[in-house]
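Exam prep: given the inputs below (a chain plus beta-D-galactopyranose), describe the expected output before reading on.
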Amino acid sequence: MDRLWYGGDYNPEQWPRDVWDDDVRLMRRAGVTVATVGVFSWAKLEPADGHFEFAWLDDILDRLHAGGIRVDLATATASPPPWLTLAHPDVLPVTADGVRLSVGSRQQYSPSSSTYRRYADRLVRTLAERYRDHPALEAWHVNNELACHIHHDYSDESALAFRVWLRSRYTTIENLNQVWGTAFWSQQYGSFDEVMPPRAAPTFQNPTQLLDYDRFSSDAWLAVYRAEAAILRELTPNTPITTNFMGFFKHADYWAWSRDVDFVSDDHYVDPADPAAPALAAMTRDLMRSLAGGKPWILMEQATSAVNWRTRNAPIPPGMHRLLSLQAVAHGADGIMQFQWRQSRAGAEKFHSAMLPHGGEHTRIFEQTVALGEELASLADIVGATQDAPVGIIADWDSWWALEQPATPAQLSYVRILLRWHQELRARGVVADLVRPDSDLTHYRAVIAPATVVLTEQAAGNLAEYARAGGTLVAAYQTGVLNEHLHVWLDGYLGGPTLRQVLGIRVEEFAPVAEPSLSGGPIPRLEIDGLAAGPADEWGEVIRVVDGTVEVHATFSGGMLDGLPAITRNPVGTGTAWYVGTAPENLGTVIAAVLDDAGIAGDRLPDGLEVIDRGPYRFALNFGTTEAELNGERIPARSASITSSDSRNALDTLDATAPALHHE
Ligand code: GAL
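Solution:
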């Protein structure tokens, strides 16, 4: 399309026909360009086994087409109808406790169910045959938020599928025993038939079994996508296919998934009560651009105001929905879609906001809908524009799964750790990609690996080679503790000897910061001297310098770590390797030093302000609650300024009066 996508999920089956005319009229008024149709329509399309009713959908697609609105047509497989699961209860998913879930909600199927697959395939084939030549068809929307509610299924059918998956990975049971470390706690298996999904158990389960179940479950959901996509590719090879991702969603390794979609699309619901929400949104949008290999992506769902699924659902304050939409465009989105077009009158989502609210067209929210439609139409020349990021932050699902397992040195949040680094870059107008530990890193000036707890030998070598060959590498605590089997990297962690050598250090012992005691008594705080001087939280450790070239830039102060290195830097080859063994409050000074090493300009922007260039535009987004000033221009709270990126190209011209901290 030569316009940005703008629109939302459209569920006409929830409304009488006389409302449909009004829908198209108001969509046109709002500048809607695309509607996602049919996401939860299975029961209406196939009200009884093998009996299809398409007349209503024909009518809807024709109306939309007549109104000039393109259609992102869903395959309708997200919620099997009650007749199906009544006839075939084996389709229903089973929890770790052995409870078979019931109907009356959605996503009530196991990704491993062959019965589900058979029925879903038939529906997709029938739909594709009917609508492949419909002139409104813009894209296929496979299923919906795969794995959203059912992260893992523990049914017998999944147990069988898990064993097939394990057999193809390990070939022999001896190999599995070795990799899973089953010599521990008498867990040794005699054959694959003895292996179970990690169902409810008395205490800590085998860590590699848990990790493999995470990997298997992500693959099982991806297989649901692939099965549908294969049918669509066969029947409509020229229509692009997507499925909506869920941002930093732990249960689907989107690096693997992104290879299978024709374009990346994402659903993102900010929490209006969370001051860090715009920062998390920015990092998530960077992940989407990265998953898309730098190409544009579509924001497939967001709320215009309140959602219905938090304990208290605050509205999104005026101005914020526009800002978040522009932020997505600035980070590479070629479309801004919402859930949903018309707010439901009945059902579990009747209190979820929409583009057209219960109050109708004379409302704040509908005015907002119309205004955004106009603004997005005026930005059409951004469509297709890509972005270069000078920094890569490693994001890795194996590490995420492993870091957040039980029975680890501390319960840490992977996304929170990534966000701290990303936030400091964003605060300096520096764009970051998210990257895999084993991908080609050579085009980044700096690469940060926070809590990349799992490193294969190859990935550790990749990071080491990146630094030696001139890159600026930052490894931060809990990186390279384990290999891909979750076996410890002995003799100093850090991904083994190759990466250790580049960092010039060993890590000897972990010292996470204690949590408040039961008595509420004072807990010892961690303090840092030197770079990032001040308090640190979450993490300390015993670091030994083993290479004479290593510079110690910060030390711990007080307690058992007193005087030991906390932050080190090693000039290596033609590059630099930093190690950050703690979480300093003052992380900004570390980032500043790293950017300096990497030759990246990046002065701190006023609080709340995000500045980012894409294509012909520079977006200055003020998420703050007070006015911000940029190059003499005043940007009111919760508003944006969009200027031409040509006139002031590099961010180092942002504020000519501020002293240049970092230079090329
Ligand atoms: C998404 C889902 C939509 C709708 C929305 C509400 O997870 O894809 O169908 O339920 O949440 O926020």
